[in-house]
Amino acid sequence: MFYTPQDGHGLPHNPFGAIVAPRPIGWISSRGADGADNLAPYSFFNAVAYVPPQVMFASTSTKPDRGDTKDSMANIRETGVFCVNIVEYAARDVMNASSGAHPREVDEFAKAGAAKAGCETIDCARVANAPASLECRLTQIVQLPGAANFVAFGEVTGFHLRDDCIVDGRFDVTRFNPLSRLGYRDYTVVREVFELARPDD
Known about the structure:
- By secondary structure, this protein is mainly beta.
- It has a single domain, classed as Electron Transport, Fmn-binding Protein, Chain A (Pnp Oxidase, Chain A, Roll), CATH 2.30.110.
- It has four helices and 14 strands.
- It has helices at about 15-20, 70-80, 90-95, 110, and strands spanning about 25, 25-30, 35-40, 45-50, 55-60, 80-85, 115-120, 125, 130-145, 150-160, 165, 170, 180, 185-190.
- A seven-stranded antiparallel sheet has the order 3-2-6-9-10-5-4, covered by helices on one side. A three-stranded antiparallel sheet has the order 1-13-14, with no helix packed on it. It has a two-stranded antiparallel sheet with strand order 7-8.
- Strand 4 (about 45-50) and strand 5 (about 55-60) form a beta hairpin.
- The radius of gyration is 17 Å and the shape is globular.
- The chain starts with 15 loop residues before the first helix and ends in a 12-residue tail after the last strand.
- The relative contact order is 0.20.
């Protein structure tokens, strides 16, 4: 089949998220200017550069109490910092519980039962027992076509790696099994890895 966004796909559900998959999940923690903490997962997330290390995530919807965006993006506009927490399979239910559209004053760490710890290089909370957390300073927010589509880019200023995930000097994802987003309500988990040598190696 072929379709254009203008004409629609004619399927019961939008296939776009299932096509671009799996997607890593950035479990974004942020803090507003009022000191209120927020925690929410975003699957439009990825690393984008090595030197300096940089990441991005996109927010694509709104909340009535946040105007043109959601809590994470609104907080980052105010404070210029955020933390990306990596989601392990064991935390899937906690991550999912933090995805609700709660009022801005609700602390999703407490609501979802996620243990909280402080960051080292920025004034922000992080998920205490995450396999990895990336402390980030905002470099820019880009508005994409569409009323609520914003992308935040951040430079990573500090890395937290859980000790049990480091094996023989490498960060071993099989020790925690990262959760990834598919389409619809579907997720997947990384349990196996393999290597491919590049032609010029």
